[in-house]
Write a sequence for this structure.
C-alpha cells in the first residue's frame, strides 16, 4: 500500500499561536520516543500550510538544515512567541492615547515584527524550504489570494524572501499595516493577512497537494503523485475556539464603528469552522479507515483571552495551560497520530537527495 501524503495546517491567531506550539511539541516528543531522539516534526510532514501566525510557524518548521532536513524543533517557535511576543505585539501608552483601539491607523507598529523576522530568517528564500509549503496572503491591488509554495519557487517570479512572506501573512488588518514585498524577479505586491480568506488554510492545502507529484518529488515510490483525499493524512491545528457571544440588544442598531471588532472575530472563526465542516464531510465519505486520517485539533481557550495581541504574562500562561489541558485529555489520540506520522514518513535517504523549489509540472 502507498504511504499517505502527510499535511500539517496551522490557523491564524496572533499570540494564540502558542497553543499549536504546545500540541505539536507533544507530538514531536512522542515521535522522538518512538522513532528518533533528535526528530523534528517538520521532517514528518510532506506539506506544511499556515495563515498569519500559522504561516510563521510553518516557515520555522520548514527552515532547512545543511542536509535539507528540518533545522528547528517546534520548541524554537514556542520560545520565539514567549520571549519575543511582547516586543512584537506591544502597544505603548502614547500609541494607546493617540490611537485608541487602532481606529485611526494600524494598532501595532510593524518595526519590531520586521526586525525579529529579519534576525531569524535572514536572507532565506522560499525555494530553500525543506518541503512544499502553502502560506497565505491577500493581494490588495489585484484583489486575489496570494499563495506561497516552495514547490513553485524555482522560477524567480514565484520566489520570495521568507522574512517578507512572514511579514505579509502576518499583516492582519487593524493590527499591522499592509506589507509591500518584491519577488526575486522584482515584481511588487501589496499584501495583507491571508486569514481574511483562509484563517484555516487546511482546504487550500488539500487543493495545493492535489497538484503535486510527491512520489517523483521525494524520489519515493511509496508516496503517491497527485494524491486524492484517501491518500492524505491531514492534521489541522487551530489557535483555540472563540465562543464570545454578541447579544442582539448590543447590535440591534449598531453602526460601522461598533461592528469593526466583532465582524473580524466572526469572519475568522466562521472561516475556520466552515473549512473543518467541508473536510470532515470529505473524510467521512471515505469509510471508517481512511476517514480517520483527518484530524481537527482546536482546543478550548479555557481562561485565555481570544485577543490576538494580548501578551501580558497572565494570558501567556493561560494560553500555555489551554494547550497543556488539551494534551492531557488527548494523549492516546496524539500518540496514535505520532505513530501514523512515523509510518508515513519519507526515508532519510530520499529526503536528503530531494531538490525542492522546482517548477510545477
Amino acid at each position: 500500500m502507498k504511504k499517505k501524503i502527510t499535511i500539517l495546517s496551522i490557523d491564524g491567531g496572533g499570540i494564540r499561536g502558542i497553543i499549536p506550539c504546545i500540541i505539536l511539541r507533544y507530538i514531536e516528543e512522542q515521535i522522538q520516543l518512538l522513532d528518533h531522539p533528535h526528530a523534528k516534526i517538520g521532517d514528518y510532514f510532506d506539506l506544511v500550510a499556515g495563515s498569519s501566525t500559522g504561516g510563521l510557524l510553518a516557515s520555522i518548521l520548514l527552515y532547512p538544515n545543511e542536509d535539507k532536513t528540518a533545522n528547528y524543533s517546534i520548541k524554537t517557535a514556542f520560545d520565539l512567541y514567549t520571549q519575543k511576543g511582547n516586543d512584537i505585539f506591544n502597544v505603548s501608552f502614547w500609541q494607546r492615547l493617540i490611537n485608541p483601539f487602532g481606529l485611526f491607523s494600524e494598532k501595532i507598529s510593524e518595526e519590531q515584527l520586521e526586525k525579529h523576522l529579519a534576525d531569524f530568517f535572514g536572507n532565506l528564500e522560499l525555494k530553500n524550504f525543506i518541503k512544499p509549503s502553502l502560506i497565505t496572503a491577500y493581494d490588495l491591488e489585484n484583489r486575489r489570494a496570494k499563495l506561497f509554495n516552495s514547490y513553485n519557487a524555482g522560477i524567480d517570479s514565484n520566489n520570495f524572501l521568507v522574512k517578507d512572506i512572514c511579514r505579509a501573512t502576518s499583516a492582519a488588518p487593524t493590527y499591522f499595516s499592509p506589507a509591500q514585498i518584491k519577488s526575486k524577479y522584482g515584481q511588487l505586491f501589496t499584501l495583507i493577512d491571508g486569514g481574511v480568506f483562509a484563517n484555516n488554510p487546511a482546504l487550500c492545502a488539500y487543493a495545493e497537494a492535489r497538484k503535486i507529484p510527491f512520489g517523483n518529488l521525494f524520489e519515493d515510490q511509496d508516496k503517491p503523485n497527485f494524491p486524492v483525499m484517501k491518500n492524505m493524512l491531514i492534521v489541522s491545528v487551530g489557535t483555540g475556539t472563540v465562543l464570545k457571544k454578541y447579544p442582539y440588544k448590543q447590535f440591534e442598531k449598531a453602526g460601522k464603528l461598533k461592528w469593526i471588532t466583532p465582524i473580524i472575530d466572526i469572519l475568522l472563526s466562521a472561516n475556520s469552522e466552515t473549512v473543518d465542516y467541508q473536510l470532515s464531510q470529505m473524510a467521512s465519505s471515505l469509510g471508517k479507515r481512511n476517514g480517520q486520517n483527518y484530524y481537527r485539533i482546536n482546543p478550548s481557550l479555557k481562561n485565555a483571552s481570544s485577543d490576538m495581541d494580548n501578551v501580558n504574562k497572565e494570558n501567556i500562561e493561560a494560553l500555555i495551560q489551554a494547550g497543556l489541558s488539551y494534551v492531557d485529555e488527548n494523549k492516546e489520540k496524539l500518540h496514535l497520530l505520532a505513530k501514523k506520522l512515523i509510518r508515513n514518513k519519507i526515508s532519510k535517504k530520499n529526503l536528503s537527495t530531494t531538490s525542492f523549489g522546482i517548477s510545477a509540472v
